[in-house]
Automatic annotation (TrEMBL):
Descriptive protein name: Arsenite efflux ATP-binding protein ArsA
Organism: Sporolactobacillus nakayamae
One Pfam family linked to the record: ArsA_ATPase
Region Disordered, residue ranges: 299-320, 367-386
CDD domains: ArsA
Keyword Transmembrane: no
UniProt similarity note: Belongs to the arsA ATPase family.
SUPFAM superfamilies assigned to the protein according to its UniProt record, in alphabetical order: P-loop containing nucleoside triphosphate hydrolases
Limits of the AAA+ ATPase domain: 12-231, 333-563
Keywords: ATP-binding, Nucleotide-binding
NCBIfam families named among the record's database cross-references: arsen_driv_ArsA, GET3_arsA_TRC40
One MF annotation (Gene Ontology) recorded for this entry: ATP binding
InterPro entries, A to Z: AAA+_ATPase, Ars_ATPase, ArsA/GET3_ATPase-like, ATPase_ArsA/GET3, P-loop_NTPase
Length: 586
């Protein structure tokens, strides 16, 4: 038996964590909860630890790591723990005292050690753990809400306390190639307190946010199971985006509800005992305090009611389709194709569609995913069998990489040196290096076939691309040599004659803003996006359902914006049920 999600009537703990697959509405629900509690007179702090945070878009104001009061919501303060900014502060804290004392070359080497993505995660966690254990902060607020990142990143972030407590306990050398640990040993006690706070059901609640879709629910189930392993047993499930039945239900609305019904009937066993709350699909975008408050209202909005009785308008909009993108890729003879975007926009689906269409036109294709939280469902290759499929499995790649490094170094090190190396290989950075090597090997196949890569959500994607340059020296240090595939990768990524970057988004506020930020970051890395895709669009669906009609109309402004952002190189994919025949793995 489910209930409507109404924070006002729930007994909530001081710390609330909102987690789930990218694009399920974590930010919207975290914001709505924070506003609702603040409206009740509670003093509330809302914090983002997401590398791809969009809280500033929701509240329409610039945010920093400092707590900022929201004018329209008395008692609400918001902070954005930007991991890159946190890493810069942390790096300077460690390196600063040595400037002017050590030679410049030594200082530069220290900065190099602290420039990897591990430092970003550790610095963000450092700020995050401080909030959980600082009594002065805890006593200043009735509730502290954390709007965490998509599930893959959240699992890494929230598992850091246990992982690093164990690492510090075992670290007898007092140093690591990681660098970040150099400034963290004195915080061991704080991290242990963080673990206790996370597992204290009187203090912490995990709010698993999902949509009534099978893939999102699977991620919620996985997150629930993984986080229970570190003691986060106090969990709630928020089912966001449930459809309301109306007198105007048409085929599209029926398809929405059929997908919803199928997903709920097949709810994973480990979620069936988790208290579950529903939120209805809203006809508006989640920007502005007014809309955030409306999300938790029991009433149908005036706009929705007005739209329910408005005359139908035939939408004659015509936009480029996926076939136009495929024509362009083949014309330019590009051999490496990335689909990139914020989590939940459908990168996997688009990558599959691109690969299948390329194969259908007579090309040999290899499709893969580098998303730590992703998976390609089995899909049948076409009748000509020109497509192969693979997934980079982080756990498998880490084990292979550790074995390779140890075996290669065994004859060159004494017992102490080997023990130090084995300790180094327990660091979280090892997974990134291992996955990077596998990623480079896949891209190298573009010499023989077109490679389509379904990359991770944008924050991780940028870290992955940065790694192509950063880890040249790191891999040389760890493994003794740099594979040819690694040496060649970054130039290939930057070669627009060979590589196409396809940014995938939805015709909604946050996905478009995030896509714009991703495009800007790619440009700074000298990687130019080739095409944009607006996925799962309702605008050409000709629905009579009032809610879906309003959502379709709201898409127009965002498609026009994508048109400008992409310099008219974009395609629109109509909404469809995400059911595809399966691909045989390589």
């Amino acid at each position: 038996m489910t209930r409507l999600f109404r924070p006002q009537s729930m007994r909530l703990t001081p710390f609330l964590f909102f987690t789930g697959k990218g694009g399920v509405g974590k930010t919207s629900i975290a914001c709505a909860t924070a506003v609702a509690l603040a409206d009740m007179g509670m003093k509330v702090l809302l914090v983002s630890t997401d590398p791809a945070s969009n809280l500033q878009d929701v509240f329409g104001t610039d945010l920093t790591m400092d707590n900022k009061k929201i004018p329209d919501v008395p008692n609400l303060f918001v902070s954005n723990l930007n991991p890159e900014e946190a890493a810069a502060r942390y790096r300077e804290k460690v390196v600063g005292p040595y400037r002017g004392i050590l030679p410049d070359a030594a200082v530069q080497q220290m900065e190099e050690q602290l420039s990897g993505s591990c430092t970003v995660e550790i610095a963000a966690f450092d700020a995050f753990s401080s909030m959980l254990t600082d009594q002065s902060i805890a006593q200043s607020f009735d509730h502290i809400l954390f709007d965490t990142a998509p599930t893959g990143h959240t699992l890494r972030l929230l598992q850091l306390p246990s992982a690093w407590s164990g690492f510090l306990n075992d670290n007898t050398h007092g140093a690591s190639c990681l660098g970040p640990l150099a400034g963290l040993n004195e915080k061991k006690k704080q991290y242990e307190e963080t673990v206790r706070a996370l597992s204290d059901e009187q203090k912490t609640t995990l709010m698993l946010v999902t949509r009534p879709e099978s893939s999102a629910i699977k991620e919620a189930a996985r997150a629930s199971k993984e986080l229970k392993k570190i003691g986060m047993d106090n969990q709630c499930l928020v089912m966001n985006g449930r459809m309301r039945r109306t007198d105007s239900d048409d085929d599209l609305a029926a398809a929405f509800m059929e997908r919803e019904h199928e997903a709920l009937v097949n709810l994973p066993e480990n979620l069936k005992d988790v208290p579950t709350f529903d939120l209805f699909l809203a006809p508006f975008n989640m920007t502005g305090v007014r809309n955030i408050r409306q999300l938790l209202s029991d009433q149908v909005s005036d706009e929705e009611r007005k739209n329910e009785h408005s005359p139908e308008e035939e939408d004659t909009a015509e936009y480029p389709r996926l076939s136009d993108l495929i024509d362009d890729l083949l014309k330019k003879k590009q051999r490496v194709i990335f689909t990139m975007g914020k989590g939940g926009v459908g990168k996997t689906t688009i990558a599959r569609s691109i690969a299948q269409e390329l194969e259908a036109r007579g090309n040999k294709v290899h499709l893969t995913t580098t998303d730590p939280a992703g998976h390609l469902d089995p899909i049948e290759s076409g009748e000509n069998g020109r497509m192969t499929v693979s997934r980079i499995d982080p756990k498998k790649e880490v084990e292979n990489y550790r074995r390779l490094v140890i075996e290669r170094s065994r004859d060159q090190l004494d017992s102490e040196g080997l023990a130090y190396l084995e300790e180094d290989l327990r660091s979280p950075c090892t997974e990134e290096i291992a996955v990077f090597r596998a990623f480079a090997d896949v891209v190298e196949k573009a010499k023989d076939e077109i490679v389509v890569i379904d990359t991770a959500p944008s924050g991780h994607t940028l870290l992955l691309l940065d790694a192509t340059e950063e880890y040249h020296r790191e891999i040389a240090h760890s493994a003794g040599e740099v594979p040819v595939s690694v040496q060649e990768l970054l130039p290939r990524l930057r070669n627009s004659e060979e590589t196409a970057v396809v940014i995938v988004t939805l015709a909604e506020t946050t996905p478009v803003f995030e896509a714009e930020r991703l495009a800007a970051d790619l440009e700074r890395a000298e990687i130019t996006p080739t095409w944009w895709i607006v996925n799962q669009s309702l605008i050409m669906a000709h629905t009579t359902n009032p809610l879906l009609k309003k959502r379709a109309e709201n898409e127009r402004i965002w498609i026009e914006r994508v048109d400008q952002d992409s310099n008219h190189q974009f395609a629109v994919i109509p909404w469809q049920e995400r059911k595809q025949p399966g691909l045989k793995r390589a």
